[in-house]
Amino acid sequence: MPSSAIDYARQNQSRFLEELKALLRIPSVSTDPAHKGDVRKAAEVLAAELKRIGLENVRLIETGTPEKPGHPLVYADWLHASGKPTVLCYGHYDVQPPDPLDEWLSPPFEPTERDGNIYARGAVDDKGQMYMHVKAIESLLASNSKLPLNVRVILEGEEEVGGEGIATFVASKPPELQADFALVSDTEMFAPGLPTLCVGLRGMIYTEIEVRGAKTDLHSGMYGGAAPNPFVALAQIIARLKDEKGHILIPGLYDRIIPPSREELTAWESLPFDEEHYRQTEVGSKSLVGEEGYSVLERTWARPTLDVHGMPGGFIGAGAKTVIPAKALAKVSIRLVPDMNPTDTFALYQSFVQHLTPPGVDVDVRLIHSGEPCLIPVDNPYIQAATSALKEIWGKDTVFIRSGGSIPIVGDFARHLNLPSVMMGFGLPDDNLHAPNEKFLISNFHQGIESIVRFLETVGEPAEN
Amino acid sequence: MPSSAIDYARQNQSRFLEELKALLRIPSVSTDPAHKGDVRKAAEVLAAELKRIGLENVRLIETGTPEKPGHPLVYADWLHASGKPTVLCYGHYDVQPPDPLDEWLSPPFEPTERDGNIYARGAVDDKGQMYMHVKAIESLLASNSKLPLNVRVILEGEEEVGGEGIATFVASKPPELQADFALVSDTEMFAPGLPTLCVGLRGMIYTEIEVRGAKTDLHSGMYGGAAPNPFVALAQIIARLKDEKGHILIPGLYDRIIPPSREELTAWESLPFDEEHYRQTEVGSKSLVGEEGYSVLERTWARPTLDVHGMPGGFIGAGAKTVIPAKALAKVSIRLVPDMNPTDTFALYQSFVQHLTPPGVDVDVRLIHSGEPCLIPVDNPYIQAATSALKEIWGKDTVFIRSGGSIPIVGDFARHLNLPSVMMGFGLPDDNLHAPNEKFLISNFHQGIESIVRFLETVGEPAEN
Question: Could you report the predicted ipTM of this complex, rounded to two decimals?
Answer without folding.
Answer: 0.89
